[in-house]
């Protein structure tokens, strides 16, 4: 691809291209943009002509974003995020703190200091508004990277070089079964007994994903039972375990009350269960509003005030 660093681009073309990639079709993009299909196709061709490279391969019914197209899409996502935040940044002045906090987090974040920070911040700044979305950890990172989120809280397997990370806490995962499972209530169960049990888990329970420590333990102990079901959300994984579909991993501190009520039963390993770190993820290239800066400072100050090892849950 030729050097295009000094060219001027039409933002409308870039925005149209972004929507085409997200909708994965010209027709879908036209419907979303309320345009005619030929107009969208023409916009894509004009952008490809300006750049001098094929961005999307659409031959013979295919729809595949090229390497150059993916690179451009990621940059466009950041531009979209920055433009979408302009109104908040421009209005972020005056003695009365206003603004909007857009938080993306993994589904199983149970962290009392976050709840306390939200309560205190809302009490002190009642005009600030909030939006919380739940997604897989990889999607949370993607939203922060593209400046669609004020910040994210999630598991991290590999840190992205363009983002900042601060560990909030460490949680430990145990294996559990529900009341109808044949291992429920047994105190003589060993890891060997789990090797051929049907398994339910998180979608990220992979050696290359956020729950790698759980996947490593399963591989090391030869747990080769069939994976019956997966979900990216903790509540659904817990539902599957409770329903007796199989054994599965859950954060121990999150399900403590369920253990106390006798609706879940913990299985081995009881010593040194897999540990997962949960991070606050921010984008240093993002222009934060006052509300976002103040809230992040409020949350991180709680970490700084706590003794070492305080936020380790098991």
Automatic annotation (TrEMBL):
Record's keyword annotation contains Transcription: yes
GO molecular function, one term: DNA-binding transcription factor activity
PROSITE patterns attached to this UniProt entry: HTH_LYSR (PS50931)
SUPFAM superfamilies per UniProt: Periplasmic binding protein-like II, Winged helix' DNA-binding domain
Protein name: LysR family transcriptional regulator
Record keyword Phosphoprotein present: no
Protein family: Belongs to the LysR transcriptional regulatory family.
Domain HTH lysR-type residue range list: 9-66
Alphabetical keyword list: DNA-binding, Transcription, Transcription regulation
